[in-house]
Write a structure and sequence with these properties.
Layout: E1 12-19, E2 27-38, E3 43-48, E4 63-65, E5 79-81, E6 85-89, E7 97-101, H1 104-116
Antiparallel strand pairs: 1-2, 1-7, 2-3, 3-6, 4-5
Length: about 130
């Protein structure tokens, strides 16, 4: 289910044009999870949430299978690839849609994966919602 537009917030799932690393001129609309927003620059940090039916790859750290993907507004089981971090400007969200928000359990799993990858200083077991 896609919801009406407004400004993105951390741990929301949005549909955005996601450019491929190996072909920067090629993009595909994918669900992405908002990680942070820099209010000074207007940049948004997101992790690509590639919708896939296979489970996370065991040889790829930082892949999180969403336990509550339906609650997040996704139609199929989804894996968030926390190694696929991209920056977007707030203007990139113009005309884009929000699917929903990660559950508290999935927020914690994503934060822990990002911590293990070195993006955060310590493992968070509790995340406060704004």
């Amino acid at each position: 289910m896609i919801m009406s537009n407004n400004l993105p917030s951390p741990f929301e799932v949005w549909r955005l044009a996601f450019y491929f690393d190996d072909k920067p001129e090629v993009f595909k609309y994918l669900p992405v999870v908002i990680l942070d927003i820099n209010s000074d620059t207007g940049e948004v940090l997101v992790a690509g949430a590639k919708v896939t039916s296979p489970p996370p790859r065991t040889d790829c750290p930082g892949e999180v299978a969403l336990q509550h993907w339906k609650e997040a507004g996704l139609l199929t089981p989804s894996v968030i690839r926390c190694t696929k971090i991209a920056q977007f400007c707030l203007s990139d969200f113009d005309g884009c849609s929000r699917y929903g928000r990660l559950s508290k359990d999935d927020e914690i799993a994503v934060t822990n994966a990002l911590t293990e990858l070195g993006y955060f200083g310590r493992t968070n077991t509790e995340i406060s919602r704004s």
